[in-house]
Each structure stands twice: as C-alpha cells, then as structure tokens.
Known about the structure:
Elements: H1 14-27, H2 31-55, H3 64-73
InterPro entries: Arc_rbn_hlx_hlx, Ribbon_hlx_hlx
Protein name: CopG family transcriptional regulator
Organism: Kineobactrum salinum
Amino acid sequence: MTTSTKRSTIYFDQDLHAALRLKAAHSDKSLSELVNEAVRASLVEDQEDLAAFEDRVKEPRITYEALLNDLKKHGKL
C-alpha cells in the first residue's frame, strides 16, 4: 500500500526545532513522522472533545453569574 504525501513548509521556533531534531534522532524517526503523529494526536483529541460536547448537549445550562452565586452560597468563595 502506498501512502500519498503532500509537501508543506513549517516554521518552528529555533529551540523547538532543535528539540524535535533530537527526538527524531533518539526515536529513529523523521521530523515528518513526528509532526504527523503529533497532528494526528491533536485531531483525535479534537474529535473526542466534540463527542464529549455532543454527549453533554442536553445537560442544563448555568450562567457564570449563577455559578458564582452558588459557589458563594456554599462558602466556596
């Protein structure tokens, strides 16, 4: 199976780039592999967050003011 790739230019902070190069060398992976893994992990996290929002859509809502009043009422503020 052949994986299609697309080229892109990414600008890293100098220290972040140095750390990424060291990690690549220590893990025997390329910079591209590490960046792709990190992006995939971020997208999975986004997908999980969206699912959690969907699960909670029917929960009752409370305003910020009501939350503060409730915290004060119960001695937490």
